[in-house]
Amino acid sequence: MIPLSLISECTKNLASEHAQVVPISLFVAVLCLTLIIGHLFERNRWINESIVAIIIGIIAGIILLLISKGKSSRILTFNEELFFIYLLPPIIFNAGFQVKKKQFFHNFLTIMMFGVIGVFISTFVITCGSWWIFPKLNLLCLTAKDYLGEATIGTIFSATDTVCTLQVLHQDETPLLYSLVFGEGVVNDATSVVLFNAVQKLDVSKFSSKTFRLIGDFFYLFGLSTGLGVLAGLLTSYILKALCFGRHSSVREIALMILKAYLSYMLAELCDLSGIITVFFCGILMSHYAWYNMAETSRITTRHVFATMSFIAETFIFLYVGMDALDIEKWKMTKLSYGSLMGIYSSLILLILVGRAAFVFPLSAIANYTNTRASSDQASRITFRQQIIVWWAGLMRGAVSIALAFKQFTFSGVTSDPVNATMITNTIIVVLFSTLVFGFLTKPLIRYLLPHAATRKNIIHEEPGSQLEDLNLPLLSLEESAATNISRAKESLSMLIESPVFTIHHFWRRFDDAYMRPIFGGPHNNGSQC
């Protein structure tokens, strides 16, 4: 006969296991439902997948509130570590791996201006505006240290989310615009996180000349993070080429690429660098070298695996943001009046609009001026309508802002401070409003401004070869062929002086073909001998 104590213990263990399994199972079920409904709305004129995920998250949160009788709207507890360690790396790596290298590097300087200088300008505008407006709205508990030292509201709300716009644009129809929006989105997120961590170390009470080292330290960390990503990508490429993994097992070479990419991200975080920048450039280098050292079947598989992981992570994030908006505990802790809260929300949205405009239009003018002097090609000129779309694409806020706010104002996703709870709810409302309202208007706006440009609605069935074709392009590629660039470079010394971009491209192609590809792999040295 089985003792009752043993039965009781087994029952407790089973209940404990179910306590962990049930929430995860429910969330996965809701995630599957989101994918199905998102597919049904794929051709909708107004709604995109991000909006669908957030709306379903809100509906799921309402149902949970009703079931729990107003106690909780969450299946899982948000943890910024979950976001930064597990969800963000596959998204950024896939962005680097799938990037159109030709357009990205052709517009590299403009992208860096938008993604780096733009974040500094936006942070300054939002921080100063918050410092001036918040006390007038009875949010008096935030000190100068909160604004400029530990929290930096400006960096939290300067992190953009361009997913909604990228789901509408198509890189083959609007290559310049897609490249700018895509590239700035990645660099912006990386810059915001690095700047957030750097500003936290500032001591406002001892503002001195050392504070001005912030910019130098920022670019120092930016460079080191890029170098680490390049090193990880080259090392993976060399290992795949030297050991011929594909001859024995496609599974091993795919697993090695995934693990090395993740390892590069974690090493960057352990060294207090930017894991976002590291894993992004790691993805670019792997697509340029390592991809050619893999078996033919592995090449196709890796693209789909990385894209799938990124897609699931993005959907997971938007779904959770919708559910977390109804966290009743945070709303109960907020002690400000309804009028003050509405004033704070409106002020933050207005500051985001102004902060975005403060750098997009001036920097676009500078980019147009420099591009005109370097080349007479009008295709690289950012028109006023394109500038409006770039400005609009960066108005939406997403998971990076949420994660930074949770990192600053909570401990393991929980806070008991009314001011901290207010800042969390502020961030959630801004993210929801910007994603739902601005995202809702994105498709019609782009259709109005670019009536002749096709969107994803019209090009859903893209030829598989179009993606694979881009991987055959050189790492630094311009719109003209390599032969044209080389002939230009050889024509005269004056052409080299007047067009330095062609010179850089010419010497890089020679160096890449002569030294890099024989060692690390490439379209002409792709390891076929394995």
Automatic annotation (TrEMBL):
The keyword Iron does not apply. GO terms for molecular function: potassium:proton antiporter activity; sodium:proton antiporter activity. It comes from Phaseolus angularis (Azuki bean). GO terms for cellular component: plasma membrane. This is Sodium/hydrogen exchanger 4 Na(+)/H(+) exchanger 4. It catalyses: Na(+)(in) + H(+)(out) = Na(+)(out) + H(+)(in); K(+)(in) + H(+)(out) = K(+)(out) + H(+)(in). Residues 33-446 form the Cation/H+ exchanger transmembrane domain. Its main location: membrane. The keyword Lipid biosynthesis does not apply. It is found in: Membrane. It is a multi-pass membrane protein. One of its GO terms (biological process) is sodium ion import across plasma membrane.
